[in-house]
């Protein structure tokens, strides 16, 4: 049962063509939103926009490309005029010990997970309404000691810090900024990391699963519910906060 929480609201989901971003985009649409999703792959974007249905548009944008971000701002302004909700879900994961990380690896992860996020917010800021909500995709990796993933963990810790700083900057503008930080979630990206057909890799991921107190993966839909809460007026007195959707891994394990 829907409540039409976003009826008449303009919602932009950056990275809305797969995984958690797609689940959130579907939920926003079901709640009545005027929706724009972005992603890097044009064919995937078009098919996912059709799958979402409703009032959904799709624009290609690679958040590591500053010119594409600028172009997206122009397109969003032409279609929407202003934004009620900005959810930035675009991100990448990569593992590797400190000795295996190249400058190219570092730049790719930081550009996608942090720099692209920052400059997307900067570009969209003049379009943000009052009141409005910005929700950023974090990760429990930004809180935990994550072996073999120092760059990813650092990028997600940066997201947490960015959200708090921007929340303080924007509080008088009527713009709330919050973070959703998932634990291991059953997304296409996770299944790729799990290594279908790779027995050793699957054993390692089974060991990882055992560290989650609820003893299962989260679903994109469960994370999307937290996103919609922070995006909606249900959380109108919440800013600078972080919601963990991690099966208890951070606080109970």
Describe this structure in words.
The chain has 9 helices and 7 strands; from the N terminus they run βαβαβαβαβαβαααβα. The chain is an alpha/beta fold and 253 residues long. Strands 3-2-1-4-5-6-7 form a 7-stranded parallel β-sheet, with helices on both faces. The radius of gyration is 18 Å and the shape is globular. InterPro entries: NAD(P)-bd_dom_sf, Sc_DH/Rdtase_CS, SDR_DHRS6-like, SDR_fam. This is 3-oxoacyl-(Acyl-carrier-protein) reductase FabG1.
Q: What does this entry show, briefly?
A:
By secondary structure, this protein is of the alpha/beta class.
Radius of gyration: 18 Å
Average of pLDDT: 94
Total strands: 7
Tell me the helix content: 40-55%
Secondary structure category: alpha/beta
Q: What about the largest sheet? A: 7 strands, parallel
In the CATH hierarchy, what is the superfamily? NAD(P)-binding Rossmann-like Domain
CATH top level class name: Alpha Beta
CATH architecture: 3-Layer(aba) Sandwich
Pfam family, one: adh_short_C2
EC number: 1.1.1.100
Keywords: Oxidoreductase
Protein name: 3-oxoacyl-(Acyl-carrier-protein) reductase FabG1
């Amino acid at each position: 049962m829907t409540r039409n929480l976003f009826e008449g609201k303009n919602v932009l989901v950056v990275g809305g063509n797969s995984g958690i971003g797609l689940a959130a985009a579907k939920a926003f649409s079901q709640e009545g939103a005027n929706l724009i999703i972005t992603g890097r792959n044009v064919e995937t974007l078009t098919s996912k926009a059709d799958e979402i249905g409703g009032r959904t548009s799709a624009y290609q944008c690679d958040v590591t490309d500053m010119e594409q971000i600028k172009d997206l701002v122009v397109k969003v302004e032409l279609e929407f005029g202003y934004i009620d909700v900005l959810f930035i879900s675009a991100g990448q994961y990569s593992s590797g010990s400190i000795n295996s990380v190249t400058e190219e690896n570092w730049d790719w992860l930081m550009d996608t997970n942090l720099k692209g996020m920052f400059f997307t917010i900067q570009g969209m800021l003049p379009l943000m309404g009052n009141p409005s909500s910005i929700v950023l995709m974090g990760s429990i990796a930004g809180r935990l000691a994550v072996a073999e993933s120092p760059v990813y963990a650092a990028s997600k810790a940066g997201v947490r810090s960015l959200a708090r700083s921007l929340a303080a900057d924007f509080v008088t503008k009527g713009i709330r900024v919050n973070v959703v930080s998932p634990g291991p979630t059953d997304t296409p990206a996770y299944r790729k990391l799990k290594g279908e057909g790779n027995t050793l890799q699957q054993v390692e991921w089974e060991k990882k699963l055992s560290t989650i107190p609820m003893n299962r993966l989260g679903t994109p839909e469960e994370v999307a519910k937290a996103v919609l809460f922070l995006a909606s007026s249900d959380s109108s007195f919440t800013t600078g906060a972080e919601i963990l959707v991690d099966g208890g891994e951070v606080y109970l394990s």
